[in-house]
Amino acid sequence: MQTTILQMFKRKERDEETQNVLKIRKTTPTDDTVEAQREEEETQPEEVAAGPSEATTGDASPTAYPSIWKEEQYEQFKQKNEWMYAHNGRLGCTPCHDVKDLGVMASRGVNIAIQWADGKIIPAGQSRDVQLSSLRKKIREHKNSVAHNEAVKILQTANKDILLNMNASSQESVFESTAKVFMTAYYVAKNNKPFTDFESLIDLQHANSADLGRVLHSKTVCVDIIEHVSSQIKKELLKKIIETKSKITVLADESTSVGHKSTLIVFLKASVDGDMEPIAFPLDLLSECAHNLDIALRRIGKVFSVRWVASSWRAVSAVWQSYPALAQHFREASEDDTRDSRERAKFKGLLSKLCSINFLKSLALMADVLTELKNLSEILQNRKTTLPKAHDIMTTYVKRIESFNRYPGQHAVDASQAEEVMEFKGEELRVGRSPIIDSAQFIRAVADNMKERLFTTTANRAQASVAANRKEAYNSLINQMAVLNPDNWDHDNPRFGDNEVRALCDVLHVNQQEAHLGFTEYKASGGRNIPNKMKKLLMAVDTLSPSNADCERGFSTMNNIITEYRSKLTTKNAANLLFISSVGPPCRQWDPLPYVKTWLGKGRRAAHSTSCMARRYTEEESYFSPLWKMWKSV
Q1: Bridge partners (DSSP) listed for residue 162
Q2: Chain segment 161-180, per-residue pLDDT in tens
Q3: For the region Disordered, what residue ranges are annotated (predicted)?
Q4: For residue 284, which of 303, 313, 263 has the smallest C-alpha distance?
Q5: Looking at 116, 133, 160, which one is the last position of a domain?
Q6: For residue 632, is it within any domain?
Q7: What is the pTM of this model?
């Protein structure tokens, strides 16, 4: 039985080989036999010892190139077909993968081979000889295909800037009109306008006799253009950072602005060209479910994580400033006969609590503490604030809050004076049953909480042992950074700060020898001149972000982008709009031409393209059309 099965498989292999030979003979004219043989020789490498002719077994270790090839065979094929790449035992075409869309040629029935573009080409057949023949044929046919050659031409055009160097006036008008469309889409993103405004702006420019071509006028194209511009700018930024090997700080914070989904906003802070001051810019929005996002946030370390308290301070300040008006409103509402008894009782209770001396003293304590926290938050929001400076400011404000136990704040003093006369801003006070906040315990809890949450390099929910080690690491880091300040130098010790600088270089992965020499020159100049060898270390220190203020600014921008009328924006589109709105230059300083070039280099249509349908205009309401005609005749 086994012998019969083996014979059947061998017979099937011979039949497939015969069919392949017949196909080759049918597709090759007899007059071109010599030329076909030459093509066969170009695509077929020299014979290499390949072992038995049976198909390779599953015991062979996986390789990037097909398993039926030896490494020498793959290298020979790769040398003669530079466009080819291999991955997980499959072949693909780099130009087809990069282009994917042939633009005008696609409308003529010429399309990219999906399997070649996605790298999914595998040999056909059972025996090794048949598989080798199959691969050679597929490579030769793809190499000579119209789609592959068009993809190669598109890439060559993009790389050699042929599009920009054409002198034909028609090409100049194509670039000019397409650039105007790009500028319109950029205006929409930069000024947080809805995508639907894009079509209205196109119509307005047409009414002003501006030439914007005949296509690329829909809101869908506006989304594509914004995505293209955003991706190109991000690519250039990240390329610069990688080339200069700049240090980066990753800032992340959670938001639920995008369609009421948990979203992680990610900022990068880095010196883009290696010389300029570090700049923080939004990189992306990451959407995850609440559970996975919570797990991810627990793993993210931090230096400082200060939440803005301005909104809470404004609420407390409003109650303090509007105290008489609130009391009058509650009094009138509690005596209003048009309200039911339950509602009147509620306002009466609010009035009783508001005019309680215990409530006033608690309100004063909250106002004093929140004022200090508000001032601290505003200082940390400054983009020029560095980590050492932020640490000094934090230490100062913790001491200021702790001093309230001995020296009451201004609001607490006003409350004490009101308690003596049992009157505050014209309102009579009474001793109520409202509980009073223990000021000493509250101030101590606030100070301890600030020290625990802020003076560390780990997340808030870390284990106790990990948190203790991280606090020690934070204190060590601050002490190492302190030696960079000339005010802290011990001039009697010529080797002062050497050990700290070496340790800081290890933490920040900066060249230790170079930084040490630069620090020695820095001390020799008395801190007046910063040597070039020292700049990398100082730049790395400045790159560390003292707060998540940039993320909060991103949330503020997102609130302008994602309104109640645009709540269905996808996370990807919201990220593109946020990036351009935050980082993009003003419209008058932005040059759309480089982005038009890369757009057309990818095979996308120009504004004057005639290979597709123009935008269909919606019918306007005709009810007032008689009036329009009358105005035209005036």
Answers
A1: none
A2: 554 454 444 556 668 889 99
A3: 1-62
A4: 263
A5: 160
A6: no
A7: 0.60
